[in-house]
Amino acid sequence: MKKTSQPPEKLEETTQQRPAVVLPQIGSAVEQNIKPAVTEAQRVAAETSVSGRHAVSRGTIFLAFYLWLLSGAIMISLIARYTQFFPGDKTITRNLQSYRNPWLRRFMTGISDIGFPKIGAPLTFGIAGIFWALRFRLEAIFILLASSSNILNWIVKRLIKRPRPTSELVAVARVINEPSFPSGHVMHYVNFFGLLNYLLATNWRSGRLRNFLLTISTALIVLIGPSRVYLGAHWPSDVMAGYVYGGLWFGGLMTAYLRVKSWIHPPAGKTPEVMKPLQQPGDTV
Asked: What is the Cα gyration radius of the chain?
């Protein structure tokens, strides 16, 4: 019995035709299952958000209050440049590390691990993607820009050149070969989770999901400082400087965000045509 073989031209045609049959089916399945869920999420986000103009007003109040709290970065840096320890650095670290509970150590490690690129990078892109999918595109862009605080951290560390805590002085969980002042983790958390809080607080009305996310983000900002000290990665003064420098950078981010947001949602008149793609859902004027 002879086997019939197709000419090369026939085989090529068959191979090229298969995707044409499969792709419409995939597109249809995506449209039927995913698109309605995204549309519903966008509708809920639009209904629970405040207007863009109201967000600008609320954001300005937050910015003014936050900038009022920030001071002393230059003075702290000069002391760190010429002093190995701040008063209380060793005492606070040793007292904190005296609680040698395995669960506490795992908890502190988990808090810090979020700030390393292995978890931090996917988390940043994931949250930015959620904002983008909900049509809060300006907010998605600024979520990505929050990581720019690493630039300031890199510059200050190399200007101050303060060494990290050593195992001869305190317990060190992980050796990190770069300067200590200020804490990069703290600066990142203040900017990333601080900006997330800022966007949630100014763009959405109070609700269970919003308040839950605000609580988690705030807890991470508060706990990252003690976590870095407990693990022996930084002195308490490094952590304090991280909060100050992170806050200064965060103030700049808020200012830039408000400027662009007020351009998109002016107090009077219409949104410029070039900025309409960044207009949030629910605002069509």
From this structure: 25
> How far apart, in whole angstroms, are the C-alpha atoms of residue 204 and residue 59?
12
At 151, the amino acid letter reads I
DSSP state of 135: T
pLDDT tens digit sequence for 1-45:
555 555 555 555 554 555 555 666 666 666 666 777 777 777 777
Q: Is the peptide bond before 182 cis (omega within 30 degrees of 0)?
A: yes
Packed helices 52-69 and 236-264: angle between N→C axes, nearest 10 degrees = 150
**Burial class (CB within 10 angstroms; exposed 0-12, middle 13-18, buried 19+) of 266:** middle
The phi and psi torsions of 265 (rounded to 5 degrees) equal -125, 75
Backbone angles phi, psi at 201, to 5 degrees: -70, -30
Nearest-angstrom CA–CA distance, 280 and 136: 5
This prediction has a pTM of 0.71
**Residues recorded for the chain:** 285
**pLDDT tens digits, residue range 206-227?**
788 889 999 999 999 999 999 9
Cα atoms in the 13 Å half-sphere on the side-chain side of 153: 27
* pLDDT at site 82: 74
Beta partners for 204?
A: 49
**What tokens appear for 113 in the block?**
């691990």
Alpha-carbon distance of 217 to 102, in angstroms, equals 24
Q: How far apart are CA 254 and CA 204, in angstroms?
A: 17
| CB-count exposure of residue 39 (10 Å: 0-12, 13-18, 19+) | exposed
Amino acid letter for position 15: T
**Pairwise CA distance, residues 110 & 102, whole Å:** 12
Enter the DSSP assignment of 232: T
Q: What are phi and psi of 105, to 5 degrees?
A: -65, -45
What is the per-residue burial (b if ≥16 Cβ within 10 Å, else e) of 133-155?
A: ebbbbbbbebbbbbeebeebbee
